[in-house]
Amino acid sequence: MLANPEISQSPESTGLHSLQAALQQSERRFSDLFEELPLACHDVDPDGVILRVNQAECALFGFTAAQMLGHYIWEFMVPEDREKTRLGLRRRALGEAPLVPLEREYVRPDGTTVILEIHQKLIRDQAGRPAGLRTFLLDITERKRTAEALLKQTEKLARSNAELEQFAYVASHDLQEPLRKILAFGDRLNRKYREALGEEGRDYLTRMSSAAARMQALIQDLLTLSRVASHTHPFAAVNLADVVRTVVSDLESRIEQFGASVEVGSLPVILGDRMQMHQLLQNLIGNGLKFHKPGEKPVVKVHSELVNHPLGPAEICIVVEDNGIGFDEKYLDRIFQVFQRLHGRNEYEGTGIGLAICRKIVERHGGSLTAKSTPGMGAKFIATLPSRPISGENS
Hints:
This protein is α+β, with helices and mostly antiparallel strands.
């Protein structure tokens, strides 16, 4: 009887072959996934030697896999990053140091560089011991360079602003003295030689003195504007109700002159610069008195509103509202610009800088200033400030 040519296999042998086949299939799947992963990735041993690198990394670096395998990973970095990588990689690969995201700069064959954010995971052997690192790399070159360019531009702008503020401060001081002399000697001429000057001469003198006074007010407002950022005090608790009482007292003569009234509602204690808050409220209340309707008594109302935001911190709105002539909201941006006026100098006094000072003060406090108005229906100015804890300080 001939023996059966088929070799019988035991259940144990069949199971082993199935396990090996499944393992080989799993390895192929992993290898395919590693190679086709759109994210740059490589494996290194504890000494930093590259064991595996995928297509995405080769494309990012500009090297072939053959040019990278077997080399130390730091050979592809800029010189200043090589030593710190060599010293730290082995400790991380052996599980002796935490795996935290880090940044390294690599050099391509053409000399260009790429900045990468690195994320690592431990590779373990069959016994579970650390045996290397699997590294995933994110290209952050544009983000970093944009941030660096933005920082340089910000620093340049800060220097430019500081220079402009210094120029405005110095120029204002230098211009003050000759103006004082013009006003002083004009006053002497008026007192001693008024009759000798004649009607035409007195008219010329009045115009000269008036122009010099306007120039002096303009310089003083420019000086105030330049000091909003440079001459500041640390933020502290400011009781706005007390500030408004002081402002109303300072404006008492104007209030009486116009037969005006200032109605003060509830006002909070905020974290800010008291001197600047006084300047802000004096300018806004003063505007409400100045731009009144002919023949109608000005009424200025000051109050606050707390605005809660479901997805962010609360804000405080300081509202100054008047019953004056108002303005067309198409000029909203214009009224906050330096030297911009909606009315002739002969109609309403002023330098056209007051609201620019107000906006700069509010922005220095981290807020925003806007207005709502209709011609002939009064104006409402709204300073929105962040609601800060009173115990803190800022500058």
